Amino acid sequence: MKSTPWFLLLATLLSTSVSLAAEATHKTDTERHIPAHTLPVPNTVSPQLQAMIAAGTLPVWNVHPQSVTEWKNWVKKWEAVSMKVLPELREKMGVTVTPSVIAGVQVFTVIPKTITENNRDRLLLYVHGGGYVLFPGESGTSEAIMMASHDHIKVVAIDYRMPPDFPYPAGLNDVMSVYKEIVKTTDPKKLAIFGTSAGGGMLLSMVLRAKDEGLPLPGAIAAGTPWSDLTNTGDSYYTNENVDNVLVTNNGLIRELANLYAHGHDLKDPFISPVYGDMHGFPPTILTSGTRDLFLSNTVRVHRKLREAGSIADLIVFEGMSHAQYMMLSPDAPESQQYFSELSAFFDKHLAK
Fold first, then answer.
1. Which end of the chain lies in a sparser environment, N or C, as judged by fewer CB atoms within 10 Å?
2. How far apart are CA 70 and CA 64, in angstroms?
3. Distances (CA, A) of 235 to 239, 250, 275
4. What is the residue-level pLDDT of the chain in tens, covering all 353 positions?
5. How many whole angstroms separate alpha carbon 179 and alpha carbon 85?
6. b or e along 180-194 (b: 16 or more beta carbons within 10 Å of the residue's beta carbon)?
7. CA–CA distance from 34 to each of 22, 31, 37, 247, 322 (Å)?
8. In the 8-state DSSP scheme, what is residue 154?
9. Helix (H, G, I), strand (E, B) or coil at 192
């Protein structure tokens, strides 16, 4: 009797496996149930990050202010915490910070002791994070301080208006007002915008607005773990739920911040959730996230959209890192050093000399 060729047997087995898998998927209604398990502290990250992972979740993830007064008191509490560490950070990083006003918006100009020759005519705009609610005034300048020192470049940090008094679109209008004024005297090709979390999301919205209004675009942008989708959409909102020890879950404080900021507007409005915008023509972009980041999918989805649109887009994903922890570590920690080095090299490559 003639035997069946091996490749036909293999094809039959594969076909049967696919059919069984499809049937199983249908039976579970496309959901996959993962058994509870313990996540070890990885030994593949720096000792500083290991200590941060081992410390567990931050206590703020499930705060629920019930009134405007409670929101304001909570913001003041964290503003005071930030302001206590800033003097030491400024001294350590060797920078001066000067407040001023541009286009009616308060800003803080951060200048390092030395500015490199390549950066003498360049400028960075900084949009701070904090869920569109935290870190008003000078309390939101820590990343700007570290970036100015590391890259030896002038940074202008924008103190945009925030909820509960000023929900969307007040903050976006403020950063756009500053941007429009800056590009009157600064070559946009020598200008970059950077920010983390809500700051990363807002700077993506800035570029969408600039495109919409026919304004010149910056030479480069850096969106750190951007809050690019304020809806509960994206794989890592589920896979990294209770794994990220900063944000923890979208069902805690994060959802309340989203609603407070949007103030009744559609959360999928591209100027609120920029991942839904048209990213054709975007400037070169560098994005940063971590393997435990709740916003990993926010970052990856923006990266894919930019690549599909034909834009230059680099992606950094740190091992073991939760949301924005490169900012929370000491400036001397390897991951922080790597983050600022990556941004500096990217800006130097893509900004005009």
1. N
2. 9
3. 6, 12, 14
4. 455 565 555 555 555 555 555 555 445 567 888 888 889 999 999 999 999 999 999 888 888 999 999 999 999 999 999 999 999 999 999 999 999 999 999 999 999 999 999 999 999 999 999 999 999 999 999 999 999 999 999 999 999 999 999 999 999 999 999 999 999 999 999 999 999 999 999 999 999 999 999 999 999 999 999 999 999 999 999 999 999 999 999 998 999 999 999 999 999 999 999 999 999 999 999 999 999 999 999 999 999 999 999 999 999 999 999 999 999 999 999 999 999 999 999 999 999 98
5. 29
6. bebbeebebbbbbbb
7. 19, 10, 9, 21, 20
8. -
9. strand
DSSP 8-class letter at 139? G
Instruction: In whole angstroms, give the CA distance from residue 266 to residue 264.
Output: 7
- Token readout for 31 is 């959901």
Give this prediction's pTM.
Answer: 0.91
β-pairing, 123-127 vs 191-196, is parallel
CB atoms within 10 A of CB 212: 12
Contact 288, 272 (CB under 8 A): no
Q: Give the CA count within 13 Å in the CB-facing half-sphere of 181.
A: 16
How far does CA 218 lie from the centroid of its chain?
18
For residue 332, give the amino acid letter: D
Distance CA(136)–CA(119), nearest Å, equals 28
Beta strands 155-158 and 105-112 are antiparallel
Cis peptide bond N-terminal to 283, omega within 30: no
Q: Which of 150, 163, 141, 146 lies closest to 82, judged by CA? A: 141
Cβ–Cβ under 8 Å, residues 308 and 31: no
Question: How many CB atoms sit inside 10 A of residue 133's CB?
Answer: 23
Alpha-carbon distance of 71 to 134, in angstroms, equals 10
CB crowding 221-248: b at 16 or more within 10 Å, else e: bbbbbbbbbbbebbebbeebbebbbbbb
